[in-house]
Specification:
single chain; 68 residues
Length: 68
């Protein structure tokens, strides 16, 4: 990571009282969650990669379809 970016990350992490690694992980998580708000297929794929069962995904997909 370039030095200026490293300083920015360190400053943001210090402001929040967390480590730089925790800050980076939080930003990645926030980005992934933001993507899932606009793409239901990606949301289901992300849930599946986290270990959610196919049965639960099917139930979630059916509930989402009923809401639309």
């Amino acid at each position: 990571m370039p030095e200026p970016r490293s300083r920015q990350v360190a400053l943001a992490a210090a402001f929040l009282g967390i480590s730089s690694e925790q800050w980076i992980q939080s930003v990645i998580t926030a980005g992934l969650l933001a993507l899932t708000q606009n793409d239901a297929t990606f949301a289901l794929a992300l849930a599946r990669s986290a270990g959610v069962s196919w049965e639960n995904l099917e139930k979630i997909a059916k509930q989402n379809a009923e809401l639309q």
